[in-house]
Amino acid sequence: MYHVPVLLDECLSALQVKENGVYFDGTLGGGGHSSAILSKGGNVIGVDRDEDAINECSRRLKVYGDRIKIFRSNYKNASEILSQEGVMLDGALLDLGISSHQIDTAERGMSYRFDAPLDMRMDQRQLLTAEMVVNEYTEEELLKILYEYGEEKFAKRIVKNIVRQREKSPIRTTKELADIVVNSVPASVKLPQKRTFQAIRIEVNNELRGLDKAIKDIFSFLKSGARLCVITFHSLEDRIVKQAFNLLSTDCICDKSLPVCVCGHKAEGKAFKKVKPSQKELVNNSRSASATLRVIEKL
Ligand SMILES: C[S@@+](CC[C@H](N)C(=O)[O-])C[C@H]1O[C@@H](n2cnc3c(N)ncnc32)[C@H](O)[C@@H]1O
């Protein structure tokens, strides 16, 4: 199985797919969400930056003919793609993070469960790899990444040991990096490598910068009454989505100390309460545990 779609029923109920409606899927992955939208009669403009995802979706979704258009691109290019297509949307979806296929394919270097080259790129055409981040970034840059993207409280010790090791010989594999991390933190720490690997992956793939702009861009292509669903997998992503949705659904954004509004800002959307996976989904797919769905409707 390439990937089990997360919060699928909840997304479908939020999107209320219309026959012949046009939907944007900025993170095709294995095509789980898109395939469900297509089977309900919608049309999909689908994007992924990973070649494997493009190949999988081209094969899996071929039966839908010209109701699916697939682009190998970054969802941050949504404005260009949607302007070129000349469409307004009946709904949109971003299912952020990585697919099971990416994390379970050893040679992608995303997981500390395997010994593989330190790669971690979602887009295999990109030059920057995890090996470059680990060996070429300054000590200060690495510290910042581990603190900001990993919220790793042992960042100092880990980075010191990375620098000490790379002075002797370059760190080339996931196992070498994982061993350094494990030896840098107290034995009582659960899943010690998780935060460092997440932080470096976020940096390699530039996962957080530009997400708020992409949300605003995609939102601007929604028809009135259409909805954007965003699924996140950690608090850093979720914070960005929550803030972007708050801004889009708030009238006045003046400083609270001002007696009257001077900004003239008007809400363009209505944000719904966040949704977490059901007990049933958690039992069937443990990878859904950290997922959060946020939905906003264009007014
Ligand atoms: C969690 S998976 C999506 C799974 C999909 N919804 C499904 O049901 O099969 C995330 C996918 O988004 C892609 N992705 C992540 N960031 C991206 C970006 N900025 N632009 C395009 N694709 C991206 C990844 O390559 C990955 O295939």
Provide structural commentary:
By secondary structure, the protein is an alpha/beta fold. The chain folds into two domains: 8-97 and 209-298, Vaccinia Virus protein VP39 (Rossmann fold); 111-204, DNA polymerase, domain 1 (Orthogonal Bundle). 41% of the residues lie in helices and 14% in strands. It has 13 helices and seven strands. The chain has helices at 8-15, 32-39, 51-60, 78-85, 100-104, 130-136, 139-150, 155-168, 174-182, 194-204, 211-220, 235-248, 279-284; strands at residues 22-25, 43-48, 68-72, 89-95, 222-232, 269-271, 292-298. The protein has a seven-stranded mixed beta sheet with strand order 3-2-1-4-5-7-6, with helices on both faces. Helix 7 (139-150) packs antiparallel against helix 8 (155-168), helix 7 (139-150) crosses helix 10 and helix 11 (211-220) crosses helix 12. The protein is globular, with a radius of gyration of 20 Å. The model has no long low-confidence stretch (mean pLDDT 97). Bound molecules: S-adenosylmethionine. Residues 3, 5, 26-27, 29-33, 47-50, 53, 74-76, 95, 97-99, 122 line the site of S-adenosylmethionine.
